[in-house]
Design a protein that fits this description.
Length: 240
Amino acid sequence: MNVIITENYEEMSKKAAEILINVVKNNPNAVLGLATGSSPIGTYENMAKDHRENGTSYKNVKSVNLDEYVGLTADHDQSYAYFMRTNLFDKIDIDLKNTNLPNGVAPDLAKECDRYNALLNELKPDVQVLGLGSNGHIGFNEPGTPLCSVTHLVDLTENTIKDNSRLFASIDEVPRQALSMGVKNIMQAKSILMVVSGKNKAKAVKGMIKGEVTPDLPASVLQLHPFVTIVLDKDAASEL
Ligand code: F6R
């Protein structure tokens, strides 16, 4: 694991964006695996700025996202489809037809998982962006998820519902389920780029990097991937 410790969220975001921009510059047909949440917002801002100022083009880039809430349509302002459009896709020249997320309002969710798994077997990300849950989750692979899991329907834990409730009017509005790439899908990416900031993640960061590989802390599986870069801010690195 290549661990980079930065001063703060801004520096972390610049570093992560630099890595992603280089992937696209080296391969204009790259497949990007993308994440939502607070962690990559600054990274996406830097990518948008670079697109505006330096013209890095995403015209031929394809993307696959980690996850989506069940029950939120793409125009719901807390859906991950909406998040991706407002934080990145609308600010760069990517063709929306080349962007992919699980559909959390598909009539048959089991079929939707099959469709997404088939897609992921075709589109292996050159780099998969990840955030880290305070309980060690990646995507919505909560503690206890088998490390061989593929895209599946997830019952979110109370911990994750509470963490995510900050973005909703009340905790009752947070969806209780999501569709998520499985751990195995994530490990199929050619490389992984994780961004983590904040003291509340420090314990999970320590377990991920220094602990044993265990489904109890799904991110620990990244120790087994040959090309992982983890960009931390000082607070997230404080227990290393
Ligand atoms: C988001 C995702 C989640 C988040 C994680 C951290 O697509 O899959 O695993 O990366 O919950 O969230 P933030 O960045 O909001 O702390």
